[in-house]
């Protein structure tokens, strides 16, 4: 098709739909092969979320007139599809051109989840692939400040909107928290920032982007002052011929950290939190452990201490304070024990850690699913939006997990 040739009209689209490659036959072939959108629509009762969505979006009664808002459930479906396919806001708005044409032509009944995902998500704003409302970089609920006005952040607030019903919407026994809980965290990268030493010092002091770049508002709008650098140190320990361990590889990562807690029996994400990448894992344990689980055991990792510039990097979840907190709530700690400093690991502790790892490894499958299938990556600016994006990714994973359990139950 030439560059000067006009796009096809709606009538032409309707005419072409009767072709063997038309939309209706294409959708019939998808249904025959097993359309994942149809499976999702049949498994998840999206209408269950409507009360939380309406409350979170704060819709008016329509007395002032104006254009009616998009249906909140349809917008929620669009955001779930966006999270499952790692789509930016711009791609989510402009990719489904054929579906938009099908709606305009009133053709055959396509997928409900796809049709509802068509409304534009941009609300009239320009978009460069990253959302950059600078007000959302401010700490939430600060006295004297107006609350963030972005719909997406309020829509996916973990304690206020979508996340609680996503854990209670399961009609099957999978909705029950059973057999204990497993806690872990994973780094989620974001686009790297290029700042001077003075700018880095100002960011570490907690200054906002508009205060660091007062004369460059456009530059400040694209600066993320909430994300942090950290070192990802890990991998299998390898040894020299004389038995001494080789140094581990340290990879610098810039972004955020996703903390989750899953139940051991069904593997759903039950609790979640989002912090900067440099935040310590152990400080989030109290936010992730819930007493609603029928089991009292808690599994978590206890990573090694790595001396970088004479400083321990991460002590993970095992600490005297966390152990006392769990014991006070009559919970059994299954957190790994650390290797004694300067001494070999006792064999009994090594065997106990190996048994714990066999159970704790289930949470690694959650992160692998999100990073490989969802392509988890933070495209937004600020902690509030990163929290919203990762919460939607957690909900999308729970939906996939629910489909898996329903399929297993149907197969007996």
Please give a structural write-up.
The chain is an alpha/beta fold. It has 18 helices and eight strands. Strands 1, 2, 3, 4, 5 and 8 form a six-stranded mixed sheet that branches. Strands 6-7 form a two-stranded antiparallel ribbon. Strand 3 (249-263) and strand 4 form a beta hairpin. Helix 1 crosses helix 7 (97-105) and helix 5 crosses helix 18 (383-411).
Observed structural traits:
single chain; 412 residues; alpha/beta; 6-stranded mixed beta sheet; two-stranded antiparallel ribbon; 8 strands; globular
How large is the count of helical segments? 18
Which structural category fits the helices and strands? alpha/beta
How do the SSEs run, as a string of H and E?
A: HHHHHHHHHHEHHHEEEHEEEHEHHH
Low-confidence stretches: 97-110, 113-136, 138-171, 304-315
Helical fraction equals: 25-40%
Instruction: Provide mean pLDDT, rounded.
Output: 75
**N-C termini distance:** 52 Å
Task: Give me a quick take on this structure.
With 412 residues, the protein is of the alpha/beta class. The protein has 18 helices and eight strands.
Give the arrangement of secondary structure elements.
Elements: H1 10-16, H2 23-33, H3 36-43, H4 50-57, H5 72-85, H6 89-94, H7 97-105, H8 112-115, H9 151-155, H10 163-168, E1 181-189, H11 197-204, H12 209-212, H13 217-221, E2 228-234, E3 249-263, E4 269-276, H14 285-288, E5 297-300, E6 307-308, E7 311-312, H15 320-328, E8 332-335, H16 347-360, H17 362-372, H18 383-411
Parallel strand pairs: 1-5, 5-8
Antiparallel strand pairs: 1-3, 2-3, 3-4, 6-7
């Amino acid at each position: 098709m030439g560059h000067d040739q006009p796009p096809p009209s709606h009538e032409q689209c309707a005419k072409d739909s009767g072709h063997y490659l038309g939309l209706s036959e294409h959708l019939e072939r998808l249904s025959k092969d097993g359309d994942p959108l149809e499976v999702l629509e049949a498994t998840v009762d999206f209408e269950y979320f409507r009360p939380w969505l309406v409350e979170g979006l704060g819709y008016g009664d329509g007395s002032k007139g104006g254009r009616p808002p998009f249906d909140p459930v349809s917008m929620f479906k669009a955001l779930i599809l966006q999270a499952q396919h790692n789509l930016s806001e711009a791609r989510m708005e402009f990719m489904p051109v054929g579906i938009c044409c099908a709606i305009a032509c009133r053709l055959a009944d396509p997928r409900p989840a796809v049709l509802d995902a068509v409304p534009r998500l941009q609300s009239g704003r320009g978009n460069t692939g990253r959302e950059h409302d600078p007000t959302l970089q401010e700490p939430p609920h600060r006295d004297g400040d107006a609350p963030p006005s972005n719909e997406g952040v309020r829509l996916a607030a973990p304690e206020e909107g979508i996340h609680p019903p996503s854990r209670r919407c399961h009609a099957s026994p999978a909705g029950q928290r059973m057999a204990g809980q497993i806690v872990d965290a994973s780094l989620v990268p974001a686009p790297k920032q290029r700042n001077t030493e003075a700018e880095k010092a100002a960011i570490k002091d907690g200054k906002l982007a508009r205060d660091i770049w007062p004369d460059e508002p456009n530059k400040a709008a694209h600066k993320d002052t909430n994300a942090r650098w950290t070192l990802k140190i890990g991998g299998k320990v390898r040894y020299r011929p004389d038995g001494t361990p080789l140094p581990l590889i340290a990879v610098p990562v810039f972004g955020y950290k996703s903390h989750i807690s899953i139940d051991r029996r069904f593997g759903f994400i039950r609790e979640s939190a989002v912090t900067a990448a440099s935040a310590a894992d152990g400080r989030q344990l109290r936010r992730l452990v819930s007493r609603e689980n029928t089991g009292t055991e808690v599994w978590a990792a206890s990573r090694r201490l790595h001396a970088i510039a004479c400083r321990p990097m991460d002590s993970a979840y095992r600490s005297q304070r966390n152990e006392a907190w769990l014991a006070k709530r009559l919970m059994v700690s299954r957190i790994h024990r650390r290797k004694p400093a300067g001494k070999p690991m006792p064999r009994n502790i090594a065997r106990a850690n190996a048994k714990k790892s066999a159970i704790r490894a289930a949470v690694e499958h959650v992160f692998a699913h999100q990073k490989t299938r969802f392509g988890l990556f933070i495209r937004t600016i600020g902690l509030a939006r990163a929290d919203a994006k990762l919460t939607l990714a957690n909900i999308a994973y729970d939906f996939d997990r629910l489909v898996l359990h329903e399929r297993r139950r149907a197969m007996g």
